[in-house]
Amino acid sequence: MSTTIREIRPEDYDAINAFWRNIEGVEIDDSENKQGFDFFLGRNKGMSFLALDHDKIIGTCLASHNGRCGFLNHLAVAQNHRRQGTGKMLVQKCSEILRTEGIKKIYIFLSKENIEAEAFWEHIGWFQYDKYFVMIKEVDINL
User: Fold this and answer.
1) pLDDT digit string (tens) for 11-65?
2) Half-sphere exposure for 57 (CA within 13 Å, toward CB)
3) Of 55, 120, 44, 128, the residue nearest 86 (C-alpha)
4) Domain 3-123 in CATH: superfamily?
5) Domain segments of the chain: what residues?
6) Coil, strand or helix: which one is 106?
7) Which class for 15: exposed (0-12), middle (13-18), buried (19 or more C-beta within 10 A)?
8) Which tens digit of pLDDT belongs to each residue from 127-139?
């Protein structure tokens, strides 16, 4: 296996979207269309990466920050490439980039049902942060 890590580019959208749709546990919503993908990459230049085995996508990790803390989204690794260090490499690459931006704390959001992802994150040193809970509201004109 020859794994390479490279920055995600806008033209990767179709292949990445297809990849995510085949990964159990990756949740995709309506905002993750081509326009939203391009906006995210443009706003967070040089922070998101994919792993390739030759020319085939085997992993992704999107990173962003708000100036105070960072966020990782859609860490996904193909089932047959798990437990080989691919996910950890992607997290390390995104974390390094966030650190160069002055970010000292990174958050992730996991589905409570995604036990495999929870085990992965704990294995690489992350922990649950019970100080906060997540709330969400769809943005509309009736705030």
Assistant:
1) 999 999 999 999 888 888 877 899 999 999 999 999 999 999 999 999 999 999 9
2) 22
3) 120
4) Gcn5-related N-acetyltransferase (GNAT) (3.40.630.30)
5) 3-123
6) strand
7) middle
8) 988 888 888 887 7
